[in-house]
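User: I'm curious whether this sequence folds into something compact or stays loose and floppy. Could you predict its structure so I can see for myself?
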Amino acid sequence: MNQYGPGDYAPTQQYGVYDRVRPRARRWPRRLAIIVVVVIAALVGLDFGARAFAESEVASQIQKQGFPKKPNVSINGFPFLTQVIARDFSDVQISTSDVTEGPLEIASINATMNGVHVNSSFNGATVDRLNGTLDVTFTALANAMTSQVGGLGSLLGGAGLSLSQAGPDEVKATINALVTSGTATWRVTRTGTNNINIHLVSSSGLGSDLVGSLGDINVPLPALPLGLTIQNISVTSSGLVGTVTGHNVSFGG
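Assistant: Here's the prediction. I'll summarize afterward.
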């Protein structure tokens, strides 16, 4: 005899099975989310690992092109692996410090490479353009100047020539040589491709022989790595800052 009246709901075995399965089914979205997170984390880790390896390889290839030591390289953009597949990198940062070029010690070089096109062997690339800066301390500039004035340089060595900023393109010096002392002001400009000219504009208390030797001092730099050329030089409170550029250069390969 049916104990349920009209309209009453009678549970069946079918609904009982459904009720037992439903909580387990609810766990699937959470499990799927966990799987997706794990996969994404693995891909991100692979992306960063591949980026670190590529940055080291690019740095090694740049060093072979003239950098005196392996520079720091940072490849920007995410994801990285899509750039590898295309063999095109839009933004690559390079930096290095304590670079000696001829008589001048460069405190740092920082540059951005835009449009880096890697060859099919992944062992070289061409670069559309480079833009950056180089920094030179007053101490390094003073050492380069004394090395370029012949025998009189020994009179100005060490603490004998102390430089500071006199203007956006001028340096001033207090000179304490063995036989004389005084002050001088030079104008600093770029001449040629990578040559720095230091022209005396005023002096006080210096002998004529010394003034004649210090009138024009040229500090030549060998060809900078990656085809970089100095566009202009400015004087700051800490030394010289030069802007450098390069176009359609290559490395590696």
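Summary: The CA atoms of residues 149 and 164 lie 19 Å apart. The two ends are 92 Å apart (CA to CA).
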